[in-house]
């Protein structure tokens, strides 16, 4: 029997509660589909930092490298300085493990969950491929004359050929594997001329994928297109910063942050799977948070680990419960957190 070693970082706020339900579903899959799970549960987050001043020690990080995958709950707490824990945990995992793909499927399961009038399940089914290790996020901010009326702040948008080429090539491979076989480049190269690198590399790689049709949108036009005609987007590739923004817009089209999941990938190596919502500290411990995003992240993790049947079973269970109305709403508090986890595990 194959055993998968999973590092678990439940994190802050509602993270431990939604991760508990993700693990409930993961264990149900292991029982049903005949694989083993070995968990490496890590305590890191704001509570741990407040108690120990540790964020993510090197020895623990080395242990993570021995795992097959990482399941992350949520990070963020107003008691810590802005960005300290987020960059120390999520950023460290993404950047130090070179998780260069951020994969965000955006799929509507029932039109009642979509805020757009007249749009249904056939209209919202896209994948956003976001570069995950470059751009402004990984550059150090610089401040001159800080705190004065002459202050200047800057943080570079830096792109490399290597980082650009590999994410664009990956996006073409994703598009080639989907029925529509269409890939859109989203950038702002007319204003941010450094993104001309994306334009040139996209054109070069496209020559190797003659079966994939291509398109281009500036990021502001892409946001409008996602609202006006989301059906026009199949797969899109974009930069780290723009991808972070448009994928959250996409999450709202599929029902909200409570169902949106993502994969942070270095293909063939340990990779990270997470819900994309925040830590919602006001709801912590109340058993009211929606765990579907984390359970969808588990489905993505299972697919990455080669457990295709288990991954499909989780996705189908979620879809069945949503479309049948047994999960009545995605709003916080409509169902208890553990109630949803139990329903999905039972549906398997």
What report would you give on this structure?
This protein has 348 residues and is an alpha/beta fold. It has two domains: 1-100 and 266-348, Isopropylmalate Dehydrogenase; 104-256, Isopropylmalate Dehydrogenase. Helix content is 40%, strand content 20%. It contains eleven helices and twelve strands. Strand 6 (142-144) and strand 7 (152-154) form a beta hairpin. Helix 5 crosses helix 6.
SSE blueprint:
Layout: E1 3-11, H1 15-33, E2 36-42, H2 46-52, H3 58-64, E3 69-74, H4 84-96, E4 101-107, E5 125-131, E6 142-144, E7 152-154, H5 161-176, E8 182-187, H6 196-206, E9 213-218, H7 219-228, E10 235-238, H8 240-253, E11 261-265, E12 271-275, H9 292-304, H10 308-324, H11 337-347
Parallel strand pairs: 1-2, 1-3, 3-12, 5-10, 8-9, 8-10
Antiparallel strand pairs: 4-5, 4-11, 6-7, 11-12
From the structure above, extract its key features.
40% helix; 11 helices; Isopropylmalate Dehydrogenase; two-stranded antiparallel sheet; alpha/beta; 10-stranded mixed sheet
């Amino acid at each position: 029997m194959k055993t998968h070693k999973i590092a678990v970082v439940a994190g802050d706020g509602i993270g431990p509660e939604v991760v508990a339900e993700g693990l409930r579903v993961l264990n149900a899959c292991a029982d049903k589909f005949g694989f083993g799970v070995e968990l490496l549960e890590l305590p890191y987050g704001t509570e741990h930092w407040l108690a120990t001043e540790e964020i993510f020690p090197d020895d623990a990080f080395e242990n993570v490298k021995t795992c097959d995958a990482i399941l992350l709950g949520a990070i963020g707490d107003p008691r810590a300085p802005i960005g300290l824990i987020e960059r120390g945990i999520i950023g460290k995992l993404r950047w130090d493990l070179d998780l260069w793909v951020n994969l965000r499927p955006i799929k509507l399961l029932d039109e009642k969950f979509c805020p757009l009038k007249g749009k249904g399940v056939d209209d919202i089914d896209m994948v956003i491929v976001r570069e995950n290790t470059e751009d402004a996020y990984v550059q150090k901010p610089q401040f001159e004359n800080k705190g004065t009326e002459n202050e200047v702040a800057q943080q570079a948008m830096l792109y490399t050929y290597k980082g650009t080429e590999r994410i664009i090539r990956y996006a073409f491979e994703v598009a080639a594997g989907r029925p529509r076989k269409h890939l859109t480049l989203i950038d702002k190269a007319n204003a941010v001329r450094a993104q001309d690198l994306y334009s040139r590399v996209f054109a070069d790689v496209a020559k190797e994928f003659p079966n994939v049709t291509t398109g281009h949108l500036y990021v502001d036009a892409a946001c409008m297109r996602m609202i006006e005609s989301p059906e026009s987007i199949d797969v899109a590739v974009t930069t780290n910063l723009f991808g972070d923004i448009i994928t959250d817009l996409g999450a709202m089209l599929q029902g909200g942050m409570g169902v949106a999941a993502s994969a942070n990938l270095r293909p063939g190596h340990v990779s990270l799977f997470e819900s994309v919502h925040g830590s919602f500290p006001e709801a912590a411990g109340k058993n009211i948070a929606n765990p579907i995003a984390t359970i969808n992240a588990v489905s993505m993790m299972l697919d990455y680990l080669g457990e295709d049947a288990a991954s499909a079973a989780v996705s189908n269970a979620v879809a069945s419960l949503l479309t049948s109305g047994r999960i009545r709403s995605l709003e916080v508090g409509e169902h208890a957190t553990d109630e949803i986890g139990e329903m999905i595990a039972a549906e398997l």
